[in-house]
Amino acid sequence: MPPSFVSELSEIDLSSVSGSTLINKDIAPTRIAERTWNTYHIAALWIGMCVCIPTYMLAAGLIAGGMNWWQAILTITLGNVIVLIPMILNAHAGTKYGIPFPVLVRASFGTLGANVPSILRALVACGWFGIQTWIGGAAINAMLMILLPFWKDFGPAPWISFAIFWLMNIYFIVNGTESIKKLEALAAPFLLLVGVGLLGWAISEGGGLGPILSQPSKFETAGEFWMFFFPALTGMVGFWATLSLNIPDFTRYARGQKEQMMGQLFGLPLTMAFYSFIGVAVTSATVIVFGNAIWDPVVLLSKFENPAVILISMLALSIATLTTNLAANVVAPANGFSNLSPRKINFVRGGLITAFIGIAMMPWKLLEDFSAYIFGWLVGYSGFLGPIAGILIADYFVIRKRDLRVKDLYERGGMYEYSRGFNPVALAALGAGVFVAMIGLFVDQVRFLYDYAWFVGFAVAFMLYAVTMKRGKSESLKKLAQ
Known about the structure:
mainly alpha, globular, disordered C terminus
């Protein structure tokens, strides 16, 4: 094990809080022996999450809104470079102290107040879980139509396929995070090869990269472009704003800061840009081959004539959706729900709660059109998550200078107790950030606040929390001096 790793980290003795209601084995700090994730594992995690159908289709919404191909890819890439910054910053505490997201937010929100951001993050993940499960079910359905000819005319077929894919997720939930790590590591190179294969097909069958790559932007003026660009950029940031919060859930298993930083740098923005481009290029070829643009890869692959190719491709899409769903949409809410009552809810039970809520949120409604998907779903929830990210970063880097008392994070009455377990400053900063970001949704004159929801919420909450906590800290020191 690298010397820098050993010098930064040490075993944390929590035997004195073993009877606390705020701890169980799933949210306790990881031990050094459990820090087995190297740069490849972190990068593979991101490849497994990024290589999925929503990423493939992401550029579709931007092009449908008026962008040309390079404007869409640039917007997606820029959004992911931006969100990478809070991603790496929030990952630091997970690696240094071995603590998951719900425990980290206890430092800023309080031992009980941490449930507020944890559940906000968890509910968004439940929505995403439902979306990914619905998409994965569609891939299963397409495979079954090839294997079983009668399946095409079987009425409940899509719902049965949805249930099959849902049960596949349940299997890995029950087997825990180590099974997720192994799946991600094995699937990453396979998924990239399938993407390259699709790109090769597009170039071969389309006689080049096709008409979509030469299609001009539909915006007639720069003003029209910028009006669309900024809320679209917010949507792209919102795509992974979820993981920018709970990334400690994974980096708590990293061998060191270098591994988590380099793994994320190589895994996130490059994969998102590459796979989004594949979506654009392959779709451009469908215009030539089939006469119309087909953005849904499940629909596209079902048109291939070779059954073996269709089956392998659909299997790849299913694996891609499964890896994304497990890492991005199960770990966070499972830990979040566990944090509500650590003694009664472990990781598995939290994951099962996620799976059932994901169905209840009716994901088929969220995927009805690109406008509802990008400007409703992605931008909307980013207004809730941006303020949480601002508070986390302000607390850990500005107020505490990366110094946490881990023992106090797991017991009542310690330095993170605040007022009966709640930090009113954090709750006020969160409320203010959400309010300012969301007011643009209801007041047309300040619509820009909603268009920049994640950025606005982040800035408001960051400044309010940092200034108020510093002032309170200063006043406390003055009283001690007296």
